[in-house]
Amino acid sequence: MAAAEEDELSLPRLPELFDTSQRLLDEVEVAAEPMGSRAIQEKVSKGLHLLKQASEMLTQLDLFSRNEDLEEIASTDLKYLMVPAFQGALAMKQVNPSKRLDHLQEAREHFLDYLTQCQLYHVAEFELPKIKNNSAENNTASSSMAYPSLVAMASQRQAKIERYKQKKEMENRLSEMKSAVEGGEADDERVREYYLLHLRRWIGISLEEVESIDQEMSILRGKDSSKEASTSHSSHQTRPPMKPFILTRDAAQAKVFGAGYPSLASMTVNDWYEQHQKLGALPDQGIAKTTSEIRRAAQQQEDQEQKEDEEDEQAVHRAREWDDWKDTHPRGYGNRKNMG
Question: Fewest beta carbons less than 10 Å away: which of 25, 183, 223, 269?
Fold first, then answer.
């Protein structure tokens, strides 16, 4: 029994949990280090752990009831209503790309929990964001977000401006009242006003964060759907890609571009047609000649081509000999008539 009492005394009390987690949140928000650094992430994890303990302790103590009004809550207990808001703010600071969507969903639930409590106690007048339960609602929201009307954009812009002005005014008043409240010099009325200002400030922050979360979640879901579509499309493509080839019309084009297959043709289609046309072996030229006649005609054609090649070689040889003779016998060589 004594050991159990000692354990209970060693556990942190609710005010200590709240103050420590609030201090850690303030340090994370004003830190100059990168959000992904180890020191910052350790503070985020510790703050979330402490806030979870504080939330469980609030549930055990049954400090807030839906059947009571805001005026029935003690002034010093009003600050504990901000526990879900702190949880949402720290959940947004977690850095893990593979779990980013889960962190956003967790933060959104905490912010909605806080906003629901504040609306239940009538802390301020505001419209509660819609709760998304399925993918169809998410797709509808993302499509409406992608194509907003000009009137909706103007009203949202005006609402953001008003919230920003109210936020600045509340921050100025909070900075003026902070030293007196934390120093224990303020009366109960001033303490109550101080924590009510904090609650209203976090209402504006929560509304902005929920809007930002919805936009980021729609972008992440769009990326996931595009990846799944590309993966399914690549899995259906089982046939290997075909090797490109070129159909050539003549021998010159075949030498330049290649035929696209290992064995090169000995003649083009036009050459084959002309040869068979000369031999009378085409179907539209009546009865084709016999095989012996075709061979004889082919042999005659080859002999004629060989003879023409030999004549061409002889002509080239004679032209070269004439050029050589002209090089060694200049113009007027052997003309002795005009010599004195």
Answer: 183
Neighbours of 297 (CB within 10 A): 16
What angle (nearest 5°) sits at the alpha carbon of residue 289, between those of residues 283 and 290?
Answer: 125
Per-residue model confidence (pLDDT) at position 247: 56
CB neighbour list of residue 41: distance below 8 Å, 6 or more residues apart: 35, 94, 95
> 146 versus 96: which is more confidently predicted?
96
Q: pLDDT tens digit string along 281-293?
A: 666 655 555 566 6
Rounded to an integer, the average pLDDT of 274-284 is 72
Task: Answer yes or no: are the C-beta atoms of 75 and 192 closer than 8 Å.
Answer: yes
Q: What is the 3-state secondary structure (H, E, C) of the chain?
A: CHHHHHHHHHCCCHHHHHHHHHHHHHHHHHCCCCCCCHHHHHHHHHHHHHHHHHHHHHHHHCCCCCCCCHHHCCHHHHHHHHHHHHHHHHHHCCCCHHHHHHHHHHHHHHHHHHHHHHHHCCCCCCCCCCCCCCHHHHHHHHHHHHCCCHHHHHHHHHHHHHHHHHHHHHHHHHHHHHHHHHCCCCCHHHHHHHHHHHHHHHHHHHHHHHHHHHHHHHHHHHHHHHHHHHHHHHHHCCCCCCCCCCCCCCHHHHHHHCCCCCCCCCCCHHHHHHHHHHHCCCHHHCCCCCHHHHHHHHHHHHHHHHHHHHHHHHHHHHHHHHHHHHHHCCCCCCCCCCCC
Q: Which two tokens stand for residue 56?
A: 């469980």
Nearest C-alpha neighbor of 202 from the set 166, 177, 178, 175: 166
**In this model, does residue 221 exceed pLDDT 50?**
yes
What's the rounded mean pLDDT across residues 208-228? Answer: 85
The residue among 109, 87, 114, 76 whose CA lies nearest residue 24 is 87
- Mean pLDDT in residue range 97-121: 93
**Is 136's pLDDT higher than 50?**
no
If one counts every other C-beta atom within 10 angstroms of the C-beta of residue 147, the result is: 6
248: CB partners within 8 A, 6+ apart: 254, 257, 259, 268
